[in-house]
Amino acid sequence: MMTLAALGAMGDREHLERLQGVAAAGRRPGAILFADLEDSTPLAKRLSTANYFALGRRLIRVADQCVVDAGGITGRHSGDGVVAFFLAENLGSESAAAQACVRAARALRDATSEIAERSNLAPGELMMRFGLHWGATLYVGLISTVGRTEVTALGDDVNDAARIEPCATGGRLLASKPLIERLTPTEADNLGLDLDRITYTQLSELPTATAKAQRDAPSLAVCEF
Fold first, then answer.
1. What are the helix and strand counts (H, E) for the chain?
2. What is the CATH number of the domain that holds 110?
3. pLDDT digits over 106-154, tens only?
4. Integer Rg of the chain from CA
5. How are beta strands 173-176 and 128-135 bridged, if at all?
6. CA angle 105, 81, 153 (to 5 degrees)
7. What is the total count of domains within the chain?
């Protein structure tokens, strides 16, 4: 009961409302964020199990807070990675959803230095990869079982987002052309982006392109910022 009470107290009301909004699965356009801790295996081997668990817990808590603060919906947690969705129906427009996704990713990237310091690590020892993409036909819904509640999404765009993220080594943030071009000039300017000057690179042409990216999404155009 104490655990349940703590979870209830930590819950964000607006996020809970967004979860309720996807209780019935359906097509919902929105932005997709994949983020994952880079070089987690050697880090896990170097740290004690207890310290690595504490690091992972700090990272997930901060990641979820960044998503919630930006108006997104937290998805699944897989190992040291997080998935989040920013739906146009929640943010008011496709442009606002794309902007929220970028803001959440930047906030999490900025927070990694503090997480590293709290974990007695140098800033360069804690880096995350970020892959951002637009899902025009996401099928999003809430899955509730006796053990957990989780928001998930299906569609080719989710798979493409999952291919972008591993290519963003070195703590980089890679966003797809479909996501960036959802931004209005005003909201792009709010992010410090000049839509007319952005250039894109196909995933297959990146030096960091993974075998899966080259196989599944070679022509997907992305930019770094």
1. 10, 10
2. 3.30.70.1230
3. 999 999 999 999 888 987 889 999 999 999 999 999 998 888 888 999 9
4. 17
5. parallel
6. 80
7. 1
